[in-house]
Amino acid sequence: MNLYTYSPKDLFEEPFLSHYEKVMNILWWEIVRLNSTVYVLKRILGFDFNVFHSAFTKDSFWKLVKGSFYESCVLCLWKIDVDNDFEKGMTLNQIKNQNNGEYQKFRC
C-alpha cells in the first residue's frame, strides 16, 4: 500500500481530519513565507549596490537588512521544525507523530 496515492480524507476520520487540514494549511503558509523571504534575500544579495556610490547610501543599512532577512529565515525554520510553543500550529515532528497515531487506527 502506497500512502502517497491516498488523500487525507481516505486516511483520517473526523474530527481529526479537520484538525489535520487546519494544521497543514498553517504549515503551508509558513513554508510559503519562508520561500518568499529566501527569494527576497537572494535578490538583495545578488544586487550590485556599488551602483549607488553616493554619500546618501549607507552600507550599514543594507547589512542590517540582510541580517534581518537571515534572521527571519532562521526563525521561520525554527517555528516549523523546533518550536513546541508555536501558538497557531504544530512542528513537523508533532504533525508526524500525531499522523502516525491516527494512521495506526486506520490500519487496525
Q: What key attributes describe this structure?
A:
mainly alpha
What does this structure look like?
The model has no long low-confidence stretch (mean pLDDT 79). The protein has one domain. Helix 2 packs antiparallel against helix 4. The protein is 69% helix and 0% strand. It contains 4 helices and no strands. By secondary structure, it is mostly helical.
- Please tally the helical runs, counting DSSP H or I stretches of 4 or more residues: 4
Radius of gyration: 20 Å
Instruction: Give the fraction of residues assigned to helices.
Output: 55-70%
Overall shape: it is elongated
Quick one: biggest sheet? none
The counted number of beta strands is 0
Instruction: Give unreliable regions as ranges.
Output: none
Q: Would you tell me the structural class of the helices and strands?
A: mainly alpha
What is this structure, in a nutshell?
By secondary structure, this protein is mainly α. Helix content is 69%, strand content 0%.
